[in-house]
Amino acid sequence: MRKMSGIVKFLRRNAVAYIFLAPWLLGFLVLTLYPMVYSLWLGFTDYDFTKPDSTQWIGLGNYLKMFGPVFGLDEFTASTGEVTRVDPYYLKSLSVTFTYVFASVPLKLLVALAVAMLMNQKLRGVPFYRAVYYIPTLLGGSVAIAVLWRKLFEKDGLVNGFLGIIGFTDLPSWITNPKYALWTLVLLTVWQFGSSMIIFLAGLKQIPQEYYESASVDGANKVRQFFSITIPLLSPVILFNMVMQIIYAFQAFTQAYIIGGGSGGVLNSTLFYTLHLYIQGWTYHELGYASAMAWVLLLIIGVLTAIVFRTSDFWVSYGTGE
Amino acid sequence: MGPGNNMKTSTVVRYTLTHLFIIVLGLAMIYPVLWMVVSSFKPNNMIFSDPGLIPKAVTIENYISGWKGYAGTSFGKFFANSLLMCTVAIVGNLISCTMAAYAFARLKFAGKGLWFAVMMVTLMLPSQVTIVPRYILFNTFGWVGSYLPIVVPRFFATDAFFVFLLVQFIRSLPKELDEAAIIDGCGKVGVFLRIIVPLAIPALVTTALFTFLWTWDDFFNHLLYLTNPPIFSVSRALRTFVGDAGAVVNWGGALAMSTLSMVPPFILFFSLQKYFVQGITTTGIKG
Q: Taking CB atoms and an 8 Å cutoff, what residues of chain A touch B261?
């Protein structure tokens, strides 16, 4: 009897809350947790979407396929006895993605901070300016802008048109030149600094003006003030922005897909990780391999996030005094 | 008088220069977008040669040729498809995310700490790690080639971003109102419907806005699931202008339809700007 009333009590206390939570909880279990476990398992198989019934466990085969070239392998014998070729483009996609992330994220944050500081003055019209500067971010992720970007950086595109006016000749097609193609994508990403700018601007407004005034009285110049007041007080916001932008950048897909016309572009110069994953999974139907790639991506993002948080002890201050 | 006047002049000069700098930089930033809009009204053979903003000839030919769409389906249908998807996605997110957020922000229950931590982790989870099994799952349901894989998850609060946004907002509402309502005889459901939902309207608008934008602009899921032209979304249809080798056949049409595709986000942004800013600053994520 006592036990019964315990259950009743538990239900009474929690039932309503769990009803409210039910959609999310169901979504989490069915659309997040189960897929995660399932894709972890798929990553150790040769699951092919066109013939799922012949799926075999291949142990670390998919991971060897990715990282085999690191050990000088061209092919290897999988646990099924089948001789498998390594993926010749995987490491390329990794280096393209790392270059993209580590070029675009710091640049984006720098530009965002600079513009936010520019706007953090007693100026009229800041809300309007802020809106204009947000326009690229509003539209930038769309297919439309990616199509436009192709047009801008082609041989006879807008950019070369302007450079021609200033007197440059013999200009390349930026979009199809493997040396520059990735950098047009970096530029496209940096161009969308609007969200980070708005967050920085909100952060800057929180810094009491008196700090700067008393620093001026003490004879600290603007540069000194920037490094000893602005940066420390803004550091939690910078950390947060950095982590989210890194996570976000690793998953970039649309722009590379459109600009490369569904491929990794010339010499795979814009073969983003997610693009390679898509091609492996949906062009070649190798969903097992794609799952393994997804898990490596998760690990990379997890490790990098952890590293950023670890180093943050040295450069992020949470306002607990000097 | 003298020094004071001087200082005033130098301040005025400084402000003017700052304004000028911001305006010039801003113009440079939105120049590509402006150029796109203007070029969409230029005759096809003039788009290539002219980096300027003032067209030498104006035509709506590009809009007519672009509107024809792809594989016999016009852009009118693509726009209708996108709007339908966005509307259903908004309804789904509003219901499911608000319910979850209310539980997290206001109710006490066993396991709350754990589930909240789980929710925060999913916020940072790259979607690639669930995409393959979801695809296989939706395929066994026979959903590939329909809107269901895109809209149904929205009824299960899979966009943790909005749950987080709404939790933050609901937590900031004064608790006294809940307590007063409870004294008046409201249950937890009553408090939710009569107090929390009406007060959370600003955050709900933000949720609806970003749901619209992300569904409108999403490409990856549309590429995976919208497999035949009659159900293409706008963003999926725009891709058909770009061939597999990356070549664009009808540039005029591509720019015209791209311009049109930006109109809805643009209108929403400028009419509801403060909700954007609020959404970005209270969560600080994405965009």
A: 142-144
